[in-house]
Amino acid sequence: MTGTWHLIRLILRRDRVLLPLWVIILCALPASYAASYAELFPNDAAREQYALTTAATPSFESLLGPLFGNSVGALTAQRVGTVYAILALISLLTVIRHTRTEEDAGRRELIAATVIGRHAALSAALIVTAAANLLLALLIAVTLISSGLEAGGSLLLGLSMAVVGIVFAGVGALTAQLTENAGPARGLAIIVLGVAFLIRAAGDPADSWVSWLSPLAWGQQSEPFAADKWWVLLLPLALFVVLAGAAYRISVGRDVGAGVLPARLGPATSTTLASPFALAWRLQRGLLIGWSVGMGVAGLALGGTASAVMDAFADNPDMADIMTRLGGTASLADAFVSGLLGILAIAVSAYGIQAALRMRAEETALRAEPVLATSTGRVPWALSHVVFAVLGPAVALLALGVTLGISYGASMNDVGGQLPRVIGAALVQLPAVAVLTGLTVALFGLLPRLSALAWGALGAFLLLGQIGAVLQLDQIVLDVSPFTHTPHLPGGTLSATPVLTLSALALLLILAGLYGFRRRDVG
Amino acid sequence: MVSGLHKSFGRTHALNGLDLTVGTGEVHGFLGPNGSGKSTTIRVLLGLLKADAGSARLLGGDPWNDATTLHRRLAYVPGDVTLWPNLSGGEVIDLLGRLRGGLNKTRRAELLERFDLDPRKKGRAYSKGNRQKVGLVAALASDVELLILDEPTSGLDPLMEEVFRECIQEEKRRGRTVLLSSHILAEVELLCDRVSIIRSGQTVETGTLAELRHLSRTSITAELATPITDLPDVHDLHVDGTRVRFQVDADHLDAVLKHLSHAGVRGLVSQPPTLEELFKRHYEVAARS
User: Fold this and answer.
1) Bigger pLDDT: B31 or A440?
2) Are A270 and B48 in contact (CB < 8 Å)?
């Protein structure tokens, strides 16, 4: 263990921004949920009504987890269900980042040659991650207590999140020992997390014992603000001891840089990689598949909740008013779907930006240079990525429209009628999404160093769309965002002018970007 | 090939009127200290950077405007080959070869064998030296007229450097033109017909190795009959009684020897000029300035 303290300080120095950032963001979430529930459902009757609706909506429990009781605290404990998964993801990534990634990059060798014990690297990564989780637990307890919730439940909720984070830190520690490179270690750990999430999502709506098979479920199964079963927290701690123990055993028995699972070999030759487009497909297909599947699943889960949420909000005029303003149509159910599509369109824009920024990443990693030193022209090279940045979001939106249409239609007993409406409503978001892609391409071509500003623009549009409508900001300010101009479908009227204007703007931005890229220095 | 090239990045002047001519069929050594503008010149030649002033011609075309057609006729290996983490080495070789317009399959297999490279490994799993080999195999297996190599042997072990030298000599026999940027003098001495030395974005020497040797200094140690205090036109003069030690440029050798024989020469040791000294001299000036 010699040198662990030095490595802890190294990790804290390297993560001095990242670590506080996620702790602060995650600790703010439970208290903000509690505040909004206290406001939305001010009395027992309203909360009981909400609890009944939730129990009748399987997809809601699948997404968030089980609801025990009907106090504000209990509702909050259910609502943070997704936060457990986020925390688990962050924890496993943090551990891998400071173990296998370091080894992969060869930096571990530099450290291992100094007076540092064999266990030090793994210990330091686990200690920092566990400490951050416990700090988060404490902060969550403090913020919940100060917002008026019961102290015991607040502390239990905080700790239940920390122990889930710590279990997945253990998962990360183990997979980091198994594979030779950081990428597969991350992939393996995320698969474990995904399986845990699916098991919980399958078990929770049925109140089945199956949920107990998932470490992700153990946090909520401690029933904070209801039965307060503290002993449940021993389960994740025990599993963590097993996982970390296995990781230490492997770590001691292996060489620095080696793994237990052999590195997967690729093909020795390639017959398909023959054009810049084929290369772009290889580089972009992961994003495309991930986003399309993600949007498809989101559509399926959210469509089912639409009619149930509508029932819950029907008695709440304030909420209904906000939803109608967000969606801009009178029919509440249509407004909900339209508002949902508006939010998800912003998420899909993130994909468009991500796909377009691949070009910049290829350039700065010096991988564009050897390709451009072949007879591949700059415009074909850039276009091969732009195609994915424009059509990729279209595919993701289509997947969203299909699944949302089916599940929404099913909940209204009208799949045939709703499916084409919802698909159309999803695809009408594309021009606004393409404007963001176009903006990214334009920045890449004309001001490459500022390419990441596209994220800033997306953040600003997100704020305008979400807060602007609620605050009733001036229309001129709202008009800056392309999403303001997207027709509110289903339910609203489809006018051609905004759709065509946005499409033309997107095309213009892309052409400007290509023009700039043709004329500028590469590298 | 290049004359009076200028290129600035913000306030840094990377190239300051650089001249470089590479004849068809020759292996041309391109030398200079770190940061002297070698890679920038190569990037201008590849049409990746646009020169601010001056002219550049490559294989009879304009490197900026005719980039894609010219690139069919050349292959490039950067000093630090970066690979796509999820593509295998073999896939990268085939990709770059095809994008260039074709790859010689037998030669590809032969080169993989000689460089002892496993093409099935993923990009993320290769060491620095093996990534370099991927770039070299992809370039050498292409049927092109011109090879542009930017410190291509960085990270290779001595055995592989030897393989690389053999390969370049074969390319030379095939009549290909090679522009080789390198720091390894043994490599340059063995392979290059002509060399250009650049410093701070300017060409300071260019010529055949014999011409450059002529430019460099001979070291002389002499035992004299009578002590002398001064010798004209010599460098680093050390006088120790009747012993003198100094360096002299080839042009002044004759005059200096006459001067010495006046004092009566009892013993004389002369060391021939080495390229290394010539390079060091240029590099040191660069380091000082």
Assistant:
1) A440
2) no
CB atoms A372 and B48 under 8 Å: yes
Residue A143 Cα distances to A25, A158, A201, angstroms: 12, 10, 28
Instruction: Name every chain B residue with its beta carbon within 8 A of the beta carbon of A283.
Output: 84
Helix residue ranges per DSSP H, B115-229: 128-140, 158-173, 185-191, 209-215
Any idea which of A239-243, A379-383, B123-127 has the lowest mean pLDDT?
A: B123-127
- Contact (CB<8Å) A279/B46: no
- Distance from B90 to chain A by nearest Cα, in Å? 5
Flag whether pLDDT at A56 surpasses 90. Answer: no
Task: Please give the Cα distance from B85 to A472 (Å, whole number).
Answer: 48
B88 touches A: beta carbon within 8 Å: yes
Helix or strand (DSSP H, E) at A81: helix A81-98
Coil/strand/helix, residue B17? strand
Q: Inter-chain contact B100–A375, Cβ cutoff 8 Å?
A: yes
Interface contact flag, A180 B125, Cβ < 8 Å: yes
Question: A263 to chain B: which residues are within 8 Å by CB?
Answer: 121-122, 125
Q: Is the pLDDT of residue A491 over 80?
A: no
Beta-bridged to residue B223, according to DSSP, are B243, B267
**Of the candidates B45, B135, B142, which has an alpha carbon nearest to the alpha carbon of residue B84?**
B135
Predicted confidence band of residue A407 (pLDDT cuts 50, 70, 90) = confident
Mean pLDDT, chain B, integer: 86
B128 touches chain A (CB under 8 A): no
At residue A26, the pLDDT reads 86
> Smallest Cβ distance to B90: which of A268, A370, A519?
A268
Residue from A179, A273, A289, A520 to probe the interface with B (highest B Cβ count within 10 Å): A273
ipTM over 0.95: no
Residues of B in contact with A371 (CB under 8 A): 96, 99
> What's the whole-model pTM score?
0.75
Q: What is the mean pLDDT of residues A365-392?
A: 94
Q: How confident is the model at residue B253 (pLDDT cuts 50, 70, 90)?
A: confident
**B205 backbone dihedrals φ, ψ, rounded to 5°:** -145, 145
Domain range annotation of chain B: 2-212, 217-272
For residue B83, pLDDT beyond 80: yes
Please identify, in words, the CATH class of the domain defined by B217-272: alpha beta
* Dihedral Cα A231, A233, A239, A244, nearest 10 deg: -130
Average pLDDT (A82-98) is 92
Q: Which residues of A touch B69 (CB under 8 A)?
A: 375
The helix or strand, by DSSP H or E, that contains position B74, with its residue range, turns out to be: strand B74-77
Report yes or no: B47 and B76 within 8 Å, Cβ to Cβ.
no
CATH assignment of B2-212, among 3.30.230.30, 3.40.50.2000, 3.40.50.300, 3.10.450.50: 3.40.50.300
